[in-house]
Amino acid sequence: MDLGIRGKKALVTAASKGLGRGCAAALAEAGVELVICARGEEALRRTATELSEKYQVSVTPVVADITEAAARARVLEQAEGADILVTNAGGPPPGVWTDWSREDFIRALDANMLTPIALMQALVPAMAARGWGRVVNITSASVRAPVDVLGLSNAARNGLTGFVAGTSRQVAGKGVAINNLLPGLHATDRAVALDQGLAARESISVEAAKKQRESGIPAGRYGTTAEFGAACAFLCSAHAGFIIGQNIMLDGGANNLTV
After folding, report:
1. Residue 163 CA to its chain's centroid (Å)
2. CB atoms within 10 A of CB 246
3. Is the pLDDT of residue 259 over 70?
4. CB 78 within 8 A of CB 60
5. How far is Cα of residue 4 from the mean position of the Cα atoms in its chain?
6. Nearest-angstrom CA–CA distance, 94 and 147
7. 59 SS3 class
8. Which of 215, 196, 218, 217 is nearest to 207 (CA)?
9. Residue 117, exposed/middle/buried by CB under 10 A (0-12, 13-18, 19+)?
10. Beta-bridge partners for 35
């Protein structure tokens, strides 16, 4: 399917690996010019080179911690005129609710709520003025099915969900579609960290922890970054303009939710 976005410009954050890279790759395949950012310079520049050479599109890497205002300004300078925004950030660490301080919550809010909001506030007005735009926020399946050890993530990402619910409906009439993608377990560094946490808590091997988690997924496996990226690219496409303010689960059927 032709996604109808060849020649558009996109900003994808935390795009050097994992789900962010999967989204960047799918957009590059569709002919979208990219600005990508991440904190790790080596992985980011390698990703930029690989995507540019493979798909023959412009890929501009910006080494930045997107949660910091000065770094975010540098990224936004390169992303001026972006038609597509994909926000992504690693989730806060798992833990027990009694262990979290105010500072822990502030860090989680900065990364997983306030930064995506700041990026939308910076880029969406121009999208609306041009009459076309797409925003996809990568959040978490825990938004709809909270995970007990992910309280920091549950809290911050639900705040972003509430913001998107109202904002998406205010700009839909101007051709801008904002939605959230809610990943379950995918084969990323985040999944490895959660597997390691489970292994430590239950005194089992990491491989055993992974198998235990996979057994709870009807699909019988973790998702791949490529299939996640394909879903993201469709939401960024010319065909997704009637999908507004949705929270779309990609979890292999792990959560049996009807609403």
Report:
1. 16
2. 17
3. no
4. yes
5. 21
6. 9
7. strand
8. 196
9. middle
10. 11, 60
| Residue linked to tokens 């880029």 | 123
Q: Is 96 buried (19+), middle (13-18) or exposed (0-12) by CB count in 10 A?
A: exposed
In angstroms, rounded to a whole number, what is the distance separating the alpha carbons of residues 248 and 180?
6
pLDDT at 258: 65
Distance, CA of 196 to CA of 159 (rounded, Å): 28
Q: Which two tokens stand for residue 180?
A: 């959230």
Q: Which two tokens stand for residue 91?
A: 């989730």
Contact 152, 104 (CB under 8 A): yes
pLDDT value for 80: 97
* pLDDT tens digits for range 158-171: 999 999 999 999 99
Gap between the Cα atoms of 91 and 67, Å rounded: 13
CB of 161 closer than 8 Å to CB of 180: yes
Q: Which residue has the tokens 């995970």?
A: 147
pLDDT per position as a tens digit, 31-68:
999 999 999 999 999 999 999 999 999 999 999 999 99
pLDDT of residue 257: 75
How many Cβ atoms are within 10 Å of 197's Cβ, its own excluded?
A: 16
Q: How far apart are CA 190 and CA 92, in angstroms?
A: 10
pLDDT digits (tens, 9 = 90+) for 198-247: 899 999 999 999 999 999 999 999 999 999 999 999 999 999 999 999 99
Q: Which amino acid is at 113?
A: M
